[in-house]
Amino acid sequence: MPGGPALAQPVSGGSATEIGEVVVTAQRREQRSIEVPVSIVSNSAEQLERANISSTLTLGSVVPGLLMTRTGAPAAPSIRGVSTKVASPGTDANVSTYVDGFYQANAVALNRSLLDVANVEVLRGPQGTLFGRNSTGGAILITTRKPSHDPTLIASASVEENSGRKFVAYGSIGLTDNLAVSMSASYTKSDGWLRNRFPGPEFPTVPQLSNYFRVRALYEPTSKLTLDASYEHGLMMDGTGVAFVHVGHPLSAAFPILHTDPRETSLGSESRVKDIWDAGYLTASLDLDFAVLRSMTQVRQDRSPWTFDLDGSPGRFIQVQAVSPEKMQTQEVNLTSKGDGRLQWIVGAFYFHDKSAFRISSPSSSAYGAETTAWAGYADATYQVVDRLFLTAGVRYSKEKKRCLVALTGGGAGPLSSCTDGDPNHREHAWTPRANIRYQIDDHTSVYVSYSRGFKSGGFNDARASAPYNPEKLTDWEGGFKTARGPYQLEASVFHYKYKNLQFIYACTVVAPPFCTTNGGVFTTNAAEATSYGAESQFSWRASENLRFRGGVAYLHSRYDTFLNASAAAPRTASDTPPCTNPNQLLCPNVSVAQDWSGQTPIRSPKWSGNLGVNASLPTRIGSFVLDANVSYVDDYQVDTDSLPCITPNCGRGLKPRRVIEAHTLVDATVSWLSPDKKIELAVYARNLFNKDYLLRSDASTVGDTVIGAEPRVVGVRVKYAY
Questions:
Q1: 446 within some domain
Q2: Which of 490, 626, 671, 680 has its CB surrounded by the most CB atoms within 10 Å?
């Protein structure tokens, strides 16, 4: 994993208009971005703050091609349209997330605040060789601030609309010549933007709360040995992903309350989804002169209680109460070459153990889960064939076992043991190679062509050992161009994907063992294949000492090659058999159906996305006045395969989906004043400056058609002190 910070800042000095070159860790060593044959978007802590990016869920506004959505409570990142609909214990996102080099498996915890980071890198494309399992879409690398021997203090306080307030503090100091420590803490609270309007008293539908504490120590007992240890405790409460607003086709006339405003609900209780975690990390690095030997150990425990109202009415007909506990350990050892020789290499081994469960107490009582044990070994090397020509080859072998767990007695409170309806152990392995050729045109420009593979692990349907599903596999061919010269930095890439064994929800319309033991119900299986191609580009331009621009654009063309029996829900109409006789067709309930999605655009795959940011400053005798603005665009896309307008078995080929997220453009802006010594900042900021109405989710199910409205304009003020 990364052995040092990934700094989005100039490597060396230069003129006032030089933008400098960016250092990244996409190949698990510090390198200039132009030397790395991977499509990367890197943002420093300052760039994220000025773009109003405070959590992983908002990263998409500065990373074209990245969508951060949710499958209920868990986060569901998507890069280049590679995402997942499956969310249950033992399943992970297709985009892997790492914090200081440590893999984060919990999908609920991916809704993470970015309050003490040094940098965030987003790697596009499968990263199976260097970052392993579940990185078919790419990887998000979060690097936090390292302790410094120089006394450092950063503190800020913000107040914004919806009763929002945020307090952040970070401090670092050297205690001895070879020991430095840092502490960071934050508190964030808001009423959110969804409101319960009818009937009865109003209340915030989704109150939001975040507490975070982290302590880190950097100890260098000798010039050869470094110990980096940290502990963090956090609480994140945000139920937005399950605060459904019903807009049509309710399950029953018993609760027909429908809304035209996607930010208004009629619920019997607040939506609360929490993740409470404790984690410890230890990285030990030993300099062996010819290479660096590194050991990375992680222990993490999460507890995620959920409480939300699914029926969309003030009556408590479908109240969901559950908790999802998870315990995870990882261990990695790798050896990374040193020096500037023609051959650079890394070899390593990785171990992962995770036990997660989902315990439901309402509306039923049950518990199920999965225990995963995974091992991997990898090797990767780059050889300089001639002065400017580099060849890279690497491979990773992964092997894992998943055990199906269920509460055989005691319902949701019972102990978990092995499932009994089949073999409770599901085993799989995968080879994920990569190879590329890079030609460095000059010291500031390079081009590359690469090949890589990735896989997303399989698993079990909830508490069903008789119906495991297999890993997804993705093959990527890619070419790119990178340059960083004077005031300009430009990167562009093109890619082609072949995506097999997509894990999706399969609708049972006939009895067809082993998946469909009854006529009805849905199960996860390997149902679809897809072909995708596209291109993306990003740039930075320092027009003058006080004016900078940065942005990017991404294009994606993706289609399911074959996708029969996709699980869906569509309303019964007056012309169907049997017909819906309700004169108000909006009250006709949805029915479960299998649809043919062959030829359709995959979920979370907008054709176009992009952003443009500007940073302009005006120095004066009393300080500097700074304007930061970011404009982001996302084309329309589907959140789920659930809404073609037909109900006969495997209908739908060529039809357009009923429910989509419409294309939208957002503008975020910050105006700030910096004191002459740059220690004090006063800022006024606005998210969604022009109050654009758009949706976070738009779904259909047998409960009804539901939406979740996105955040409207929010204005806030911030004061910050840095020493």
A1: yes
A2: 626
Domain membership of residue 499 (yes or no) is yes
Residue in the block written with tokens 């309402």: 362
Kindly report, residue by residue over 246-299, the tens digit of the pLDDT. Answer: 899 887 766 668 888 999 988 888 888 888 999 999 999 999 999 999 999 999
Residue 657: which residues within 8 A CB-CB, separation 6 or more?
A: 600, 638, 643, 644
CATH number at residue 79: 2.40.170.20
End-to-end C-alpha distance for the chain, whole angstroms: 30
How far apart, in whole angstroms, are the C-alpha atoms of residue 304 and residue 242?
14
Give the whole-angstrom CA distance, residue 241 versus residue 494.
Answer: 33
Single-letter amino acid code for the residue at 352: F
Parent domain of 452 = 23-722
Domains: count for the chain: 1
Pairing of strands 264-265, 195-196: parallel
User: Is 239 domain-assigned?
Assistant: yes
Lookup result for tokens 């596999």: 473
Whether 8 is covered by a domain: the verdict is no
What is d(CA 441, CA 388) in angstroms, rounded to the nearest whole number? 7
What would the pLDDT profile of 485-535 be if each residue is shown by its tens digit? Answer: 889 999 999 999 999 999 887 766 655 555 566 666 667 888 889 999 999
CB 476 within 8 A of CB 435: no
Residue with tokens 């357009």: 656
